[in-house]
Write a structure and sequence with these properties.
The chain has 248 residues and is of the alpha/beta class. The chain has helices spanning 16-28, 45-58, 71-79, 117-124, 159-169, 209-218; strands at 36-39, 65-68, 93-98, 102-103, 109-110, 127-135, 150-154, 176-179, 181-182, 187-188, 196-201, 222-225, 227-228, 234-239, 242-247. It has a 6-stranded mixed β-sheet, with helices on both faces. β4 and β5 (109-110) form a beta hairpin. The protein starts with 15 loop residues before the first helix and ends with a strand.
């Protein structure tokens, strides 16, 4: 007679937001008292900001100064009790924590689908250590590989002209440039800096990323783009099988 088999347990399926939270909490383990921190923007970074505020209230962290990368993060940080400053008073940052929209195998990033790429790049370019937190859905074979937007912040003046020039720059890889809008009326999305965003969509790999970066930045009317090249020092990826940490 066969013994009854033990009931099989259903696997625990974590939501994307739960994975983001796991990655964010892991990143906050890098934070030490007395640090100046770059505070990222977005659905993953917000978990890190909440956690830092929690540890400050518990007394496990002290003497922390935060440098926010957006007005939204600034408001969140104030609400959870993180003391804030800016790059003028703290031009060197110990550690920044932020999410990413894409990460390639060399830890190059696409950021800015939330619209904060300029301030993020200013802050994260001034830090000694930049910890990037993602769930595994953000991993791509090459930059632009998700088929989703690679944002470029531009001045509003003659934005169509700038968008057309961006599209022409990458016509060989099937680039489409679209002005980012919001709401039912299709009004242009306006960044914290009063600029517009043109989202670039690529059918194929754009190739040499540094050459692409230089070409974009040479266009008059472009303020900054969302490729963060050779900036991340640590990558934390949360997936169904756990958390992996990769260092440069």
């Amino acid at each position: 007679m066969e013994s009854p088999s033990s009931p099989s347990r259903a696997p625990v399926i974590l939501t994307q937001d739960e994975l983001k939270k796991i990655a964010a909490y892991k990143a906050v383990e890098f934070v030490e008292s007395g640090m100046v921190l770059g505070l990222g923007t977005g659905s993953t970074a917000c978990h890190a900001v909440d956690r830092i505020g929690e540890l400050l209230r518990q007394g496990q962290l002290t003497n922390i100064i935060g440098i926010p990368t957006s007005k939204k993060t600034q408001e969140q940080a104030i609400s959870v009790g993180i003391p804030l400053a800016d790059l003028d008073s703290h031009p060197i940052i110990d550690l920044a924590i932020d999410g990413a929209d894409e990460v390639d195998p060399f830890m190059n990033l696409v950021k800015g689908r939330g619209g904060s790429l300029l301030r993020e790049k200013m802050v994260e370019g001034a830090c000694k250590q930049f910890v990037v937190i993602v769930d595994e859905s953000k991993l791509v074979k090459y930059i632009g590989g998700s088929g989703l937007a690679m944002p470029v912040e531009i001045v509003p003046f003659c934005w169509k002209f700038t968008a057309q020039r961006l599209e022409l720059l990458f016509k060989d890889v099937g680039c489409v440039a679209k002005l980012r809008t919001f709401g039912e009326n299709g009004n242009p999305f306006v960044t914290d800096n009063g600029n517009y965003i043109v989202d670039l969509y690529f059918k194929n790999d754009m190739g040499d990323l540094k050459a692409a970066s230089d070409a974009i930045l040479r266009l008059a009317g472009v303020v900054e783009h969302g490729m963060f090249l050779d900036m991340a020092t640590t990558l934390i990826v949360a997936g169904e099988l756990g958390v992996t940490v990769k260092n440069k």
